[in-house]
Every structure is written in structure tokens, then in C-alpha cells.
Amino acid sequence: MYQKFIFIFVLIFCLFSCSKNKDFEYNPKNQADPYKLYQEGLNAFEKGDYFFAEKKFSEAELNFKIVEYSARSAVMSSYALYGINFYTEALENLNRYLRKYPADKNIMYAHYLIAIIYFEQITDEKKDLKPLIEADKKIDFFLREYPNSDYALDLKFKKDLIQNQLAAKELFIAKYYISVQKWVPAINRLKIIIEDYEKTVFIEEALHRLVEINFYLGLEGEAKKYAKILGYNYNSSRWFEQTYKVINKDYKIKKKDKNKKKDDSFFKKILKKIK
Asked: In terms of domains, do 80 and 188 share one?
């Protein structure tokens, strides 16, 4: 939670440090003006009272006559919703902002927050893949549109985590098919890893499993093809050592130990470290 507060503070500082001007200061001569509403929202936001801040920013957006200030209020309202973990409402507000203010100069921050919200909703990929897939899409969009942004490096790191988790999901399914000797679907899942997630930590095991299965099925040509790829790129890997045993006919497919306790997924381990 503390990490989130730091994130919000830094991002909001960057968002408005270059655009703050005297027009945004409260003028007591103006009655019921949106500037006062915005300032009240900003004061509450800085104190961590995101509920009250969101209310004031929403009111300010409705009352501003200047589009730039209305847009800014909408973004701030979204950050307030994010601050209290109202992810669904924050996403709805951000998508409305993108539709209503497509030319706003702060639009990059909205896209960044959308990616962050989906990323933070990733909990158990075995139960719900939507946040994982959506986060991957939103991060890809941000990196394409804003490759030189200060936030690109952070999203690249998160992209790597997501790619590893998607690959882990495919490998988990492939291993299940192997355990019940469903070779074709197992091969298809493993090929997804080597074609779509070749930069993940699971590529070596995926190549080894393809060698293992093809050799078991008597398809030595296919087995040797994947063995060469593994040996050329990862010849110091423990999986290459296992593959060497397969090619030399000194290896058997291990049966699944039903009593063996499952390890936590790669992504859960990472999340425990970065929380």
C-alpha cells in the first residue's frame, strides 16, 4: 500500500508540475467556482482522503468551462479512485476520459494508469486470465505509443513478468497433457511457448519437452531438430543435459508424482517480492 502512495504522489507531481498556473489558484471573488472545487479535491488528495477528493474532482469537471481543466479534473478523479482500489470505477472513468478528451495533453498518464490497474488486478492466473491478458495488451500499446517515456522502463519490467506468467500457464497445461499422454495438445502448447514467449525463462524446458515427446513417439528427426535449437542457444542449461540423455537413449519420461505438492507459480513468487 505504501508503494502505491509513493507511485501516486510521484505521478501526480509529474502530471501537473509542468502545467500548474495561476488560473488554477482559488479566487475568492468567484462564487461556487470549479477552481475552489478542484483545490479542495487537491488538498484532500494530498492528505490521502481519496473519497472526498474524487467527489470534488468530479464536481470540478462538471463545472469547468475550460476543456483543459475539465480533462485534468477527470484524470485526477481517476487517480483518486485508483488510490482507494476502486479499479472498475477508475477504468470506467479513464475510458470515458479517453473518449471525451482524446486530444488532451495528459492522455499518456491515463494510458499508463490503465496498464497499472490491470497489472495490479493479477492474482491467480489459473482462475482468471483476463487481467493478465489485458495488462499485456495495454502495456504493449503504451510501449508503442510512448517508447521514450519515463514510465516505459517500469512497464517493460512488468511486461517481462506477464510474459513469463503466460508462458508458465502454457507449460503447466502442457505438463498436464504429458501426464495423461495426450501428445498432440501437449506439443501444441509447447510450440506456443517457443513461438510467442521465446524470451521467457521457460523456453529451455519447452524445447526439452518437445525433444522428449517426439523421441518417445519415434519422431527422432523432430526430436533432434529441437535438441539442436536447445544446444545452440542454451548449451549450458540443465535442460540441455537432460536432452542429451534423451538423444542417447538413456532417458525415460517421468511419471507424474500424484503426492508431490505443487509449487507456487512464478508470478506469485515475484509478486511476494515486489509488494
From this structure: no
Q: CATH code at 211? A: 1.25.40
Residues 6+ apart with CB under 8 A from 223: 210, 211, 212, 214, 215, 246, 247
Concatenated DSSP letters of 41-89: HHHHHHTT-HHHHHHHHHHHHHH-SSHHHHHHHHHHHHHHHHHTT-HHH
- Residues 273, 132: Cα–Cα separation, whole Å: 18
Over residues 146-159, the mean pLDDT reads 94
Burial (CB count <10 Å: 0-12, 13-18, 19+), residue 50? buried
The pLDDT score that the predictor gives to residue 55 is 93
Question: Cα(85)–Cα(83) distance, rounded to whole angstroms?
Answer: 6
Mean pLDDT of the chain: 82
Residues 27 and 116 both lie in one domain:
yes
Residue 118 near residue 134 (C-beta atoms within 8 A): yes
Confirm if 171 and 193 have CB atoms less than 8 A apart: yes
Domain that holds residue 57: 2-121
Place of cell 501526480: 12
Q: Would 135 be classed as within a structural domain?
A: no
Distance of CA 30 to the CA centre of its chain: 44
**Residue 108 is part of a domain; what is its CATH number?**
1.25.40.10
User: How do residues 31-75 score in pLDDT, each as one tens digit?
Assistant: 458 899 999 999 999 999 999 999 999 999 999 888 999 999 999
Report d(CA 243, CA 220) in Å as an integer: 12
Helices 203-216 and 238-247, interaxial angle, to 10°? 10
